[in-house]
Each structure stands twice: as structure tokens, then as C-alpha cells.
Amino acid sequence: MRIAGPLHLVFQCFVFGLAVAATQFDGSTAAEEKDRPMPSITLSPAMQTRCLEILRSGLRADDFWPSMHAAEALTLAGHGQEVRRCLSPKLETETDDRHRCGLARELVRAGDLSRTAILLEILAKEEPYGHVHACESLFKCGRTGDGRLLRAAMDQDENPTLAIMAAAALGRDGSADAMKRLREKLAAKDPEVNRIAAWVLGQIGEPCDVPQLRANLAALTDPIARSYHEHALACLKDAEGLRALARNLKSDDAALRVHAAAFAGDAGAVHLADELTSLLDDPDLDVRIRAAQSLLVLSQPDPRSQP
């Protein structure tokens, strides 16, 4: 039976979910696999100190987006107060709306939830310059406001990236309609569209998204577009995705190394700790930051493993 239109995506997820639930390689169901605590690594005190030194240096770097990545990593490592002290004064003087989104996002992630208002304010502006960054930031820090602005951004059809990032924020908040739209975008033929949807679904998707990610990957030749799908697959515990992530950590392209180093933590790739440690000496600042972040993330016990 073939189901036409967008409903086939919902049906595909349902059927694939049943198949995975019925036949995991180790006999566990998909739900059991998802709920299983992630393994962790042990970092020596010296290695922890080194990672934090890289992040603190990155936080104060002149290169804006790597400094935001360092802020994210420090918050994930439990140093949100330090991030708030550093970034709050910068937000008061910043005038570029995209940079304001980055600063507000990391302040929210570090615990200053009042800064969500800045992201919603930028999204409400008639000038669209900061809209995508506002939606992406709301997605990353798990905030939606009342959802009205995000739904309007998701429903517009002038900017596909804006629609995807708005759906991402709403999908993370539990919207089934937003998740359906993300899967429709993943199935789009345009690689500029499906790669962003892949990036999102790697973080909030389900095992039923694996077949479409694999299908997209088979048609792609651009290394960056491929990496978005490979790393999404890795986060969904796909074996080939994890192998590709390992290869990308050793790429000659710094952009691929950055992306792989960031996703290694999300994928729970504890077996790549040595490769991540090597990247602490990478010539690219953002690679060093993302490698330090993933090492610290991988060293934290999964809360589900705690009594």
C-alpha cells in the first residue's frame, strides 16, 4: 500500500517504529534503547582543567560565534554563572540582532530566562534580518513564548530555513504538527532544505527518521550537506552514521571537524574520546572548543543512571 501526500511520512514513522520495537539487535525495544542511560568517560583532573581552559579562552575570543560555542560548553559543564557574568555586559551594548540572539540565547541557556524576551522581540520585528537566528536560538534553549510568533514563522513560505527553525522550536516543545512539517522538509528534494531538517531531527527525531536520512545521504555529494545527515544518523545510533562521524573528526576541512566534534557529544560517542582529545590541539579555535565541549559532556553521568 502506498499512501500519497504528507501522510506517508507519518505512516513511515509509525511502521518503522513498530519494526524497530519488534526487532532490536539485542532484543530491546526502541523505547528501551532510548531510555537506556548513556555511557560516560572518565577525564583526569588535568584533562578537565585543560578543557575548561580552552573554553574560558574561547569565551573571551574576538571571533563571535566560537565564543558563543564556548559559552554553551561552559554552561553544559556547570559554569553558567561564569557565562552570565561575562555575557550580560556584552548584551547591553550589542546592536547587531544576530549577535544579540547569540548572547541572549546563551544567557537563557545559562539560567537567565528573562532574556527570552529579547529573542521574541527580534522575531517580532518587521525587519527579517534576525528572524532565523531568533528561531534557532529559541530551539536551542528550549523556549517558545506563547508560540504565536513561532507558528507564524513556521507557516510562512518565503524562507524555508525560517520555517524549519520555527518548527524545530515548536517540535522540541511537543508539537506533533511541527514534527510532521520537519519530516516533510527532510523529504524535500532541495539539499539546502533537507540538510537543515536533518540537523534538527538528529537532535529531536526518532529512529523512524533513519530511512529518509539514509535516502537523502545516498543522493548527496557535497561533504558538508552529507555531514548534516551523517551526524544526525549518528545521534540516532545508526552504525554508519557513527563511522562517518569518526571519519569527519579527521577531515582536512575544519568545518567538518567542527561539526563532527560538536555532534560527538550529542551522539554519546564515548569510543571517540581519543580522537576528541587529539583535537584539543587543533589549529582551528572552534574545533578545539567543540572537542573540549564533547569531552566534558561525555564525562558527565547520564541523570537516568543516578539512583
Number of helices: 18
Spatial shape: globular
* Secondary-structure element string: HHHHHHHHHHHHHHHHHH
Oligomer: single chain
User: From the alpha-carbon coordinates, what is the Rg to the nearest angstrom?
Assistant: 19 Å
* Class per helix and strand makeup: mainly alpha
Description of the structure:
68% of the residues lie in helices and 0% in strands. The protein has 18 helices and no strands. It has a domain at 78-182. The protein has 307 residues and is an all-alpha fold. It has helices at 7-22, 30-35, 45-59, 64-76, 80-93, 97-109, 116-124, 131-141, 148-155, 160-172, 176-186, 191-204, 210-218, 223-235, 239-248, 254-266, 273-278, 285-298. The longest helix is centred in the first third of the chain and has 16 residues, at 7-22.
